[in-house]
Amino acid sequence: MKTILKAAALLLVVGVIALPATAYAQTKDKTVAEKTDPAVVDAYLKATFGKAPPEWQARIEPDETLKTCNLYHNDVPAAEADKIVKRELAKVVFPADGKLLGDWKEGKKIANNGRGGQFSDDEKTVNGGNCYACHQMELKEVSYGTLGPSLTAYGKDRKYDPAEAKQAFTKIYNSQAVVACSNMPRFGANKFLTEKQIKDIVALLFDPESPVNK
Question: Within 13 Å of residue 188, how many CA atoms lie on the same side as its CB?
Fold first, then answer.
């Protein structure tokens, strides 16, 4: 059992440190998840990063939303899910200029950049969205993640509807404001990506000239 806990904790460390906005990694084996005491995992994380700088210590401390998701192993009751979505939606800050679409070419760079949130990063490191790790972005791609749905023809399928673009901005800014206990990082809420970067990614999804919509 100790081996299982250590292995699970290591997976959690990778998820929390590489993507500081994400909830604890989900497991397909619910039996293991249900037997794993969250307190034991939290204690292991704190012990592992006990000598880390204060800003890193803060990253491994789950907020109210993550505590709820962890408690229910991401399968929260409807009432709790509603509370999470309402709480997280209040954290979303939309662009003051009202414009949601930036430069899709820059968005493509961000979507394919997996850097950021690592001990080895220096002050010049530009955080990326790492989108390709979970989503197919273009039909011509030969390698992509499948944890999330394919995003090919995303804007085209939604007829480039401004309301859909706003929903996409919301999801990227704070995924928990759309789907409680989402695996997707809270890029904007946790200040991992800037407003401009998020607008550029939305443009990648909704600009008719973007390769996503070709």
Answer: 26
Q: For the chain, how are helix, strand and coil distributed in percent, rounded to 5?
A: 50, 0, 50
Our CA dihedral for 26, 30, 34, 40, rounded to 10 degrees, sits at -40
Burial of 78 (0-12, 13-18, 19+ CB in 10 A): exposed
If DSSP codes are grouped into helix, strand and coil, which group holds residue 115? Answer: coil
Burial 128-144 (b: 16+ CB within 10 A, else e): bbbbbbbbbbbeeeeeb
Percentage of residues in the chain with pLDDT exceeding 90? 66
pLDDT in tens, 17-51: 333 333 334 444 555 556 677 788 778 877 887 77
* Cα–Cα distance for residue pair 149/141, rounded to 1 Å: 14
- Distance of CA 92 to CAs 32, 124, 169, Å? 34, 26, 9
What pLDDT digit, counting tens, does each position of 137-151 carry? 999 988 899 999 999
pLDDT at residue number 149: 96
Long-range contacts of 9-14 (CB under 8 A, 24+ apart): 9/41, 9/44, 9/45, 9/48, 12/41, 12/45, 13/45, 13/48, 13/49
